[in-house]
Amino acid sequence: MTSTAPEAVDCPTADWVTIPDLYRDPFPIYRRMRAEAPVHWVPAVNRYMVTDYAACHTIEQDAERFSADETDSLMKRSMGHSMLRKDDPEHKVDRDSYGATLRPKTIKQHWNAIFATNNRTYLDELKAKGPGADFVWDYAAPYAAENLRLICGFHNATQQDLQRWSQTMIDGTGNYADDPEVWARSETSSAEVDAAIDEMLPHLAQNPDHSLLSGLSSMPIPLEAIRANLKMTIGGGLNEPRDVLSTIVWALLTHPEQLHKVQQDPALHLAAFEESVRWVAPIGMYPRQVVADTVLEGVRLPAGARLGVVIGAANRDPRIWDDPETFDVFRPKRPHLAFGGGAHFCAGTWVARASVAQIAMPAVLAELPGLRLDPQDPPVDAGWVFRGMVHMPVHWD
Ligand code: HEM
């Protein structure tokens, strides 16, 4: 009998990819890569980049072949060994330790009122700054940081601390150049987080609330794991709601016909949120490691290969979506990969949906009439591992 399965091929190299090009605008690069092969060895990134939807989906669902526990991980050095870099069953112990804090019922019964209060504070601050204020830094960033501060249970820190901790530790996870100053800032933040946790755990054990640290204070989880998981959550739970909130508003302001329909029908806020994270995945790439020699979508990969699962590219795969480069709130729904999948599916998905689509968007659209971008000072979007707006002055009537 003859086999109809195509022969596996060696992995092609994409030596034309550069980090500055990826940072500026990765999408033309992803288009070319996806058209050529599902996975490439990319010397500039020192990883195999997986850009095809089916291949990314396979990796997410098959932790036995593709491990999250990467060797020589910079994230482990910067933040410690968190659940994000563990496989089951060790991963599950840490994930379960987060209890009910991030679940839809707790969000509805407890967090939504707190998100609304925080939204009031920071939207009022944006309005007080007046037209010309920066939507990202004067509103979306402090709003996301204050929500995360309270979810974590850092009653001894400020939202500004959360922003500094998050950015400096993220810079550590990307410090491939081994810059000692980047390590020094990341280590300072890491020590500050340790001290804040040490102070909060006994306090929250006596005065429980709905926060992550409160739940953890009465659990038999080693302190080392609590510290690493909280650092990962500070790094992974702040930039993404900030970035998706700014990207949705940018997308709607540059697509006025869709903005008009979303303003008419609040039921479309969630559709706009899902389309925004499909179109520009706030986390564009995350790592995995090949456990033993394998074949992925017809491409041979060696044991130990360090993969970049490029969900920012998979989310624009034309085999899944028609006209995938276009922002379209009304496109037929298909499962996107912006929140990952499998065991590591984002634990904060419902927090992000509620705080952005349910609380922030309706207020922004109702309270800033005539909201518009500044043609003299245009917005800037940037990044590929994390992507979002980095500059977005806005005006309103
Ligand atoms: C739009 C917003 C968000 C996006 C797009 C996003 C995306 C992701 C992705 C892609 C992963 C999986 C990464 C991997 O498998 O390596 C992840 C994991 C995670 N996210 Fe989010 N995230 C968002 C918001 C949040 C928020 C607000 C929180 C916390 C309040 C959070 C907490 C976590 C945690 C704890 C994990 C690790 C889950 C595990 O390893 O089991 N995320 N997120």
From TrEMBL:
Has keyword Oxidoreductase?
A: yes
Q: Keyword set for this entry?
A: Heme, Iron, Metal-binding, Monooxygenase, Oxidoreductase
InterPro entries, alphabetically?
Cyt_P450, Cyt_P450_B, Cyt_P450_CS, Cyt_P450_sf
Q: Describe the family membership recorded for this protein in Swiss-Prot or TrEMBL.
A: Belongs to the cytochrome P450 family.
| Entry protein name | Cytochrome P450
User: What is the native source organism of this protein?
Assistant: Kocuria oceani
